[in-house]
Amino acid sequence: MSQTSDLVAARVRDVPDFPKPGIVFKDIAPLLSDGEAFGLLVDDIAKRHSGRVDVVAGIEARGFIFGAPVALALGLGFVPIRKAGKLPGDTIASTYSLEYGAAEVEVQADAFAPGARVLLIDDVLATGGTAAAACELIERGGAQVCGLEFVIELGFLDGRDRLGDRPVNAILTV
Ligand code: AMP
Could you tell me the distance, in angstroms and rounded to a whole number, from the CA of residue 124 to the centre of ligand 1? Predict the structure, then answer.
């Protein structure tokens, strides 16, 4: 394991049976509360994508926590991919299924410049439904997904399989 994956492994708390029985929730609060570890994680993601992307997108809500500082570290803008009904103006929407439940994500129709190279960030890759829906939005919006970054991947759920050939990296795979 890399130094960054060790940091994440030591600072993510497993919460059994949350938000419903049978789910082991990956609680990132201890990681966020450690400023040095949080900063090292953001720098690790940013340096691997420096010069390769034009904009960073994050998935509501915890993808915002990691995506916005990565965008700033790269000197780039940030696009929020939000749950349905939160964004004003023209939007593009996609529905998807979660490890627990179903939902819809949206992005503003003019969020991406044509052909923009997008780095997409979220905290956890579980079944891959959320990230696949977000990729679809980015691509329907006229941009391209040049990389996906997750802090934690639940490898046993095979979420990567839903993301096709797009380049996927997880700091820690469990
Ligand atoms: P999925 O669409 O199944 O890949 O689910 C990913 C989304 O749900 C991410 O935005 C995560 O924040 C959240 N999520 C799914 N499973 C978990 C889990 N076990 N612990 C924490 N967050 C999760």
Answer: 5
